[in-house]
Every structure is written in C-alpha cells, then in structure tokens.
Amino acid sequence: MSMTAYTALWFAPFVLPICLYIMYTDMKGMKIPNHAVMALFGVFVVVGFITLPLDAYLWRYVHLIVVLIAGIALNAGGALGAGDAKFAAAAAPIIHLGDLRFVMALFAANLLAAFVTHRLAKSTALRRMAPEWKSWSSGAKFPMGMALGGTLALYLVLAALYGR
C-alpha cells in the first residue's frame, strides 16, 4: 500500500466514526447528511495538513475536484445519489493515488457484500430490529453509504496495518 501507516493511524480515529455514522444514516433515512460530509472534509483539511508533505496535501484537493465532477455527472445520470457523490468527493483526498486500483477493487467487493447483506437482512427477522428504516422499503434503491463508508473505513484499517 502506498499510504503510510503513520498517516492512516492519524486519519482513522477521526474518519472511522464518520464512516459508521454515514452508513447508519444512509440505511435509516436513505440520506448522507451534509454535516457528516463536511466533517469528513474537515478531518482531511486538518489531519492532512499535519501528516502529509505540503505538495501532496495540496495535490489531493485535485482528487476532490475530479471525484466531485464525476459524482455530479453520475448523479445527473441517476447512477448514484447526491450524498453519495459528495461523500466520495470528501473521501477522495484521504486516499493515496497509488492505492487507487486497490481501493477500486476493495469498493467492488464491499459493494457486492453490502448489497447482498442488505437484501438478505431486509428479508429476515433482522428487519424487525429497525422497522422504520427507509432502506428496507426503497424498492430498487440501495443505501450506497454502506459500501462507501465501509470501503473508506476498511482502507484506513488496512493502511494502518500494511501501509509503507
């Protein structure tokens, strides 16, 4: 992995709770709240400044812009929600560009696992534990925050364990 364990260990205590919160709110209400996205961005602004070399820190804002533009296009095409696009954009600067292929594979696996888990839970008695969650009755829509938040959290944990 290209991200250093040092950087991952700095990001993890702040980012992991935000990821869990985003996963929860997206499953409960099919929304990723703006305050959570702004908190994630704020973590990058502060922790990134502390842990990254200045040139790398500044270039990572380009990651945010590129992913935000792609997310807006995907949202306009109906491929994902606006909250998903904003979360992906706020998460993009945290991810080291050298780990992009790994993160994409991790996201693909996590998306499949989250989708299957959500659909199975929706069809079992587990649904009774949180009957008011909108994601249970959202039809074909899926709370992508489950996969997005899970991917970022797993990436940071793996980078903390196996980073350079």
SSE layout and pairings?
Blueprint: H1 5-29, H2 34-51, H3 54-76, H4 82-91, H5 100-122, H6 145-162
Describe the structure in your own words.
The chain has helices at 5-29, 34-51, 54-76, 82-91, 100-122, 145-162. With 164 residues, the protein is mainly α. The protein has one domain (5-162). The longest helix has 25 residues, at 5-29. The chain starts with a helix and ends with a helix.
Which short descriptors sum up this protein?
Prepilin type IV endopeptidase peptidase domain-containing protein, Prepilin_IV_endopep_pep, mainly alpha, 6 helices, 164 residues, 71% helix, membrane
Q: Strand percentage, roughly?
A: under 5%
Continuous helix count: 6
Q: How many strands in all?
A: 0
Overall 3D shape: globular
Biggest β-sheet strands, sense, barrel: none
Task: Classify the secondary structure makeup into a structural class.
Answer: mainly alpha
User: How much helical structure, as a percent, in the residues?
Assistant: over 70%
Order of SSEs:
HHHHHH
**Mean of the pLDDT scores?**
94
Poorly predicted runs are: none
Rg, please? Answer: 16 Å
End-to-end separation in angstroms reads 6 Å
The number of domains: 1
Organism: Pelagimonas varians
Protein name: Prepilin type IV endopeptidase peptidase domain-containing protein
InterPro entries: Prepilin_IV_endopep_pep
Domain Prepilin type IV endopeptidase peptidase: 15-116
